[in-house]
Amino acid sequence: MLNSPTGRGVCRWFKVSTEFVFAVAVTMASFAERSTGRRVCASRETIAHRSGVSVSVVKRARRALHTLSVACEMVRGRYLTAEESHAAESHHGRIQRRAASVWALTSPKSLVTAAQVVTKKLAKKVRRSKDGALSSYPQLRSRGPLSPSRGFKLLSLVREVSPTRARTRTGEDSKNPRTTPLQPRAIELQRTAAELLVHAPVFASAGHVGLICEALANAGIDENRWRGRDIAAELTRDTQQRGWTWPTHIERPVGFLRWRLAHIDWTAPSPTEMAQKAAQEARQRIIDRDARLSRRDALIASAEHRQRCRQALAATLNRRRQAVAQM
Description:
mainly alpha, Arc Repressor Mutant, subunit A, two-stranded antiparallel ribbon
């Protein structure tokens, strides 16, 4: 549903990517009841931490899911009263000020109807295949004394003792590259690619965001240093420096992105790093200024010290006047 024109339009309206909406939906499903999909009582911070996104993204993703009729807010979150807060603290041993909203995951009527139609068609095909097998092989009408009670048990036994799975049982790696498990992409790389599509929509026609992730990884870009906004800004700066302009339409956006990334030095500090360095220098200047003012204030005499100095000066002048009067 998210990859349909309606789903992409809703995600575009709420300014959130379909990947983030899917991640939030999966996280909410992990907190829901298995049989009904109700009672999703997790807070926004917990869902954001599990999904690897920010709290604002969780808010926009929830609105998108509610618009697509796949999630419904049953109870709005609120602040607890004093009695409820004391009861919650006595129950789980920590202070609780707010109660999270309660959500329920639902299925649109159109999807349920389509799923029922597909299920009925599959059931008819299975029934026809069984009837054809019984008519072609009469010996299958009666089960032999040594045959298993159900067919899937025989299949499971074959899989358990099959020599093709001996390497898996012994822990050895398979020589077939097709069976090598694929490692998931880092969440930082996925977040950088998604942010790049937001700030450089000309690459949105590339299709799956995984193609953008591969292009960034092949270019040697450190996703921990370069954010998607930084990459888009660097591409714009390089375009202006070369006297070019951004095209309005690209036939091969992934190839164009690979070509542009290959002509830029990504070992230089990113705009985010330079901004952080400037902020750190500003904080250090403030600290140095405060220390300098503190040292200056420490040298200023106190009121008591000035009073003692005035008294000593008055006593000295009094003695001099007495000495002059005696002369």
